[in-house]
Amino acid sequence: MGASPECEFEQIEWPLRIIFVGSICLTILLMVALGYLVPQWSSLPAVARVVLPAGTAWSLLVSGYGLCVRCRTPRVVNEAMERRTLLDAGTGVFNSRYLDMRLAEHEDLARRHGDFVSVLWVNLDGFGKVNAGHGYQAGDVVLRTLAGTMARQLRSCDVFGRIGGDDFLAVLPQTDRRQAHIPAERLRVSVEECVCQAEGGKVVDSLHVSIGVAAYPVNGETMHDVVQAAGRALRQAKDAGGNTVVSAEDFIHSDSRADAIIRKVRSQPNA
Asked: Quick count: other Cβ atoms within 10 Å of Cβ 40?
């Protein structure tokens, strides 16, 4: 979401280039025009014949640029504020509002193109003990560190965000449930190997996550159903002792009917 640092630099740099080139062109035009229109122009010192048009051209262009920046600033500020409303303040990853938007978007794309979309529901094991043993500030550091660690394990096309508390959701487009096990396991291992340095030098380690995996359309006819299926798989992972990945069972409990559902989705027109 948002422009990369390179794009932001380009947005700042190109107006300056326009001002530089434009001032040269406008200076030349003013010099030529004044040479024809002002009889006394040729009698002025050479320095004056350069400085006057150049100064006038520069003033006009800088004034125009300033007006453009003032007109553009409210839009930039609004865009920045909108971006902040889509991020979770505690962890810096996307929030539930953004996840809901992307879930709806990926459901629509998958329905039209006959693709799979997988969902990973991630929950930290024993996070209450972290807060109890190290304090809530340490817990906040752990959440922020682990969120960044997990987000880095996913592809650029995947969506990762916090849905509340110590629960996170990853949306994996064009990924079936079996393929989703690979990034799910990668997330689990990355947390297991993570060591968090909290305030005051406290080290928080031995962290684990449980992950429930579900996929559209085999675990639900809507992404809402798929998320619920991932939640049920997560509960099974918790019941199994945690620090594991569990897939939801097919909601139709029949491979032949699952194939029929997928064929039906893929046969729908791309409209």
From this structure: 7
| Residue in 33, 190, 178, 173 with CA at minimum distance from that of residue 113 | 173
Q: What residue ranges of the chain are covered by domains with CATH 3.30.70.270?
A: 96-267
How far is 229 from 174, CA to CA, in rounded Å? 18
**pLDDT single digits (tens) 229-253:** 999 999 999 999 999 999 998 654 4
Neighbours of 37 (CB within 10 A): 8
DSSP conformation class of 1: -
Right CATH for 96-267 from 2.60.120.260, 3.60.110.10, 3.40.50.300, 3.30.70.270: 3.30.70.270
- From the list 212, 219, 225, 231, the residue with the least C-alpha distance to 262 is 219
Return the pLDDT at 30. Answer: 60
Handedness of CA 49, 50, 55, 57 (dihedral sign): positive
> How far is Cα 229 from Cα 249, in angstroms, rounded to an integer?
8
Contact 169, 227 (CB under 8 A): yes
Q: Could you report how far apart the first and last alpha carbons of the chain are, in Å?
A: 26
Amino acid at 162: R
Render pLDDT for 144-203 as a digit per residue (tens, 0 to 9): 999 999 999 999 999 999 999 999 999 999 999 999 999 999 999 999 999 888 776 777
The encoded tokens of residue 42 equal 């040729």
Give the list of residues 6+ apart from residue 8 with CB closer than 8 angstroms, or none.
none
